[in-house]
Amino acid sequence: MGGDFSGLEIMQTNKMKNRFWTKTEIHISIIIILWLIFVVLHLSEGTLQGKIINTHFGWLIINRAFVGEKHYRWYEYFGYFQRLIKSYWLWLPVACLGIMRIFREWLANKEQHTSLFIAWIITILGLLSITKTKVSWYIMPIYPALAIVSGYRIGLWLNEITAIRLIKWFSIFLFVSGLCLLPFIVHRNENRDIKALTYYLKKELAENEGIVNYKLSDWTTRIAVRFYTDRAFENPIEEKKENFVIRMNSTKKKVALCKKEDYQMLVDCFSKPYPIIYETENLILFTNY
């Protein structure tokens, strides 16, 4: 998104208005467009059982963002603003003052590059605020823009010597803080559920056999399963419950993995009791034989 905004902002400046694109720029643009078309077609046909485009855009973005039984009240669309206030209450006032400053400068002289930061922040926040799924890392692309406008506002308050001194000591503080936090980050027990299941998955399944999953995360669980067990999910993460039940009720041996809260709901749909192989804090591994 940042690259798109930068390109649009450059095109509206006087430098781009007063001349046509050179042949080199046109050739490079054509090559990039053709490459993007090739990548999209290749991924849609050859990866993730031929459904990567539908999986990513159709399920992850469209379905999680706009489809579902839950109806949001009007104030819930301001969820990202609430998260910013809660997590960055000390930084946010400075960022808001910076946005107000560059907005005034943009109104006074629209040829300045301040419109880039306005579009950068407002577009991302506005687009993601209308979605139903709201998590903090979805709006990470706005952090560089907020940091720049905050630094710009602070720079207007300080003289050059004080600003350089502040940057030096703040950099030292960040470096020392990082060293102190590093041991805690390294020793975090990430993916503990998958680690606990590794022995049982390798025992029950050959390396070329897949695991039946019921709507587990494609970004964390799938990658952790592949990394720790050398096994993969055989069915797409967006598979409907009816298709999952049909897959498990087949005569062929299947090993399935699902969340605890989903297991009881699935049991009621099975044709016979399916034994649990192993149970972790959040996941259940079971089989149909």
How many strand units? 5
Number of helices: 13
User: What proportion of the residues form beta strands (DSSP E)?
Assistant: 5-15%
Q: Spell the H/E element sequence.
A: HHHHHHHHHHEHEHEHEE
Instruction: List the strand order in the largest sheet.
Output: 2-1-3-5-4
CA distance, first residue to last residue:
49 Å
- Class per helix and strand makeup: alpha/beta
Report the C-alpha radius of gyration, rounded.
25 Å
Total domains: 2
Notes on the protein architecture:
This protein starts with a helix and ends with a strand. The longest helix has 27 residues, at 160-186. Helix 1 crosses helix 7 (114-129), helix 6 (92-108) crosses helix 8 and helix 10 (192-204) crosses helix 11 (221-229). Residues 14-18 and 46-50 have low confidence and may be disordered. The radius of gyration is 25 Å and the shape is elongated. It has 2 domains: 2-157, no CATH class; 192-287. It has 13 helices and 5 strands. Strands 2-1-3-5-4 form a 5-stranded mixed sheet, with helices on both faces. It has helices at 2-11, 14-17, 23-46, 52-66, 79-87, 92-108, 114-129, 143-157, 160-186, 192-204, 221-229, 241-248, 260-267, and strands spanning 210-213, 232-233, 255-259, 276-279, 283-287. By secondary structure, the protein is α/β, with parallel strands linked by helices. Helix 11 links the parallel strand 1 (210-213) and strand 2 (232-233).
